[in-house]
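PT: before anyone asks, these are the final sequences, not the draft ones from last week. 688 residues across everything. Please model them as a single complex and drop the result in this thread when it's through.
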Amino acid sequence: MPRALVIEDDEVTARDIVAELGAHGLTADWVANGREGLNRALADGYDIITLDRMLPGMDGIDVVSELRKRAVDTPVLMISALSDVDERVRGLRAGGDDYLTKPFSPDELAARAEVLLRRRRRANGGEETRLRVGDLELDLVRHNALRQGQPLTLLPTEFRLLEFLMRNAGQVVTRQMIFEHVWGFHFDPGTNVIDVHIGRLRRKIDGAGQAPLIRTVRGSGYTLAPAD
Amino acid sequence: MRPLTDAWRSATSRLIIIYGALFAIWCVVLLGVVQWEASRYLSSVVDQMLAARIHYLERTDQSRLRDTVDAAGAIDSQGYMWAGLFDAKGNRLAGSIARIPKELTDDGVARPLEAGLADLTREGDSRTRATARTRAVAQTLPSGERLVVAKESAAIDGIGVIIRRGVLWGLTLTLIPGLLGGILIARAPARRVRAIQQAMEPIREGDLSVRLPISRANDEVDLLAGTVNTTLDEIERLLGEVKGVTDNIAHDLRTPLTRMRTRLYRLQQQFEGRPEGQQLDDCVAEIDTVLARFRALLRVSELEDRQRSACFEAMDLGGVLRNVHEFYAPLAEDRSQVFQLSIGPLPSLRGDPQLMFEALANLVGNAIKFTPNGGAIHLAALTDPTGDARVDIADTGPGIPPDEREAIFRRFYRGDDTRSKPGCGLGLAIVSAIVRLHGYSLSVGGNERGAVFSVICPAD
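LR: through. Structure below.
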């Protein structure tokens, strides 16, 4: 079972995070102080760390910098009330892998934690060159996609979108996460554009008579998984 | 605001000119009065001399009168005084005056002669000078003879000439240095007014942190600038308070709303597929809308508060436009809209590509939203004649009425035609804040066939 370290000084927020990660199959430990959090992260082998930006004892930025300096490559999801783009850039430059602004939906946090965990597993297992979900295949070297052996004609954006969904197969990804990972932007697009892109991809991969692979999770986002 | 470029238009210059003109008029009037008084006085002196001479000749014995009259002119070698004795018919009997001037009546009252001495003297009289001013008196003697005495009064003209010359020199020596000095004096206040005007420019564009310059002169201009600065301090404080309250409400309400959404979302998962699930879906969607508005509101504040350009770099504006076009093309296609992109040669620019994408995405998103199905949107970038980059987002929507074209950039503003569309009236405020952060300018034009938003990006 993957282990998570939650470094968060607000007890209510920490309880929510621990509960949500637990619901997603992670064992979570909670630490309320930056320096203590750094010591725990250095001592124990955690699979993922959620790290508040403003902490007593030691600032979140300093904690993640120190971890990276000591070659600890555990994925760090930074959480902050500071939504400014510059703050995000600082957090990511210091060594954070993702940045979530307070207040957040616990399912959003869990989804991001899952993505980071999968990325870590991929990194440990070597870079994949072919993704497969059910009868859908994606060749990352040849840059082509097949469904039931039939080639699919995808635009570059559709290919990146499908790759992101397949890398996180079975995992709910939010519209914001799709926008950040596929397009690389960190603001709220505020329209249904992501839905339109997903709709076009859906029409291309879920042909007539084929079991739908992309499902909408109401109130949350999308998931790509073979039908049960 | 009209620029104060012409020094003659300044209040100081105008006052100096008005004062100079009044001073000149006053000088002319004053010296006119002096001349008039002097002339009057000199005329009265001449008249007294003429009266004295007439009186003397009247009392002269009749037997010696002719000789005395002859002598009266002869003894005056300077030719200042003439005398003439005439019979009752006006024939000359004695003296240096040839004939009785027509202006004279025999009443003993001195009168000026129009033609001066030329009218009185005999030809060849060496003392005759064509003087412009001569006064004469005629008197009938008891014997019936007529006595005429005249006196040249050139001194009066001389005084007039001296006074007129004095006026001209006085005015010249007073007005020319006065005007030059005035122009020089007016330049300093004009410079200060220009400095104040320049300081007002960013204030007019919404930057309330700027203050008007105050010199050490501590004069009325400084007093006025100080008053404006105090007013700006107060406006800035009040706006800051209003904005702070708005931001705090948005910030503080997000946490309970997010928690409420989390609970509703969990309930929604439990009730999925049941009638209650649909209601819970709607509740979650409503909360998402409110949270999106709060996010947008805080985003505007965050952008407006940014004074830095930490992420500014050499920016490929064409690349940003291609990304925006690629991102929105499917949405336009779904609405059967023609979405064109044209990019001409562009100058090098500095900026934050992420923020510019956000701004242009907002504008394109609006264009697609407000253009009817089957319409057209054109995203174009080119270098304008001034060398700056210009991005136009043109659509075939309903257009924006001219009286709303400034208001649409305000927070929460929604025109009558847009209330039925989804949105919160903060998108253009975000665009405006990003454009201002870059030092670019944003304008909206178009007509009833659609709107055109233009972003001018000065070249790096």
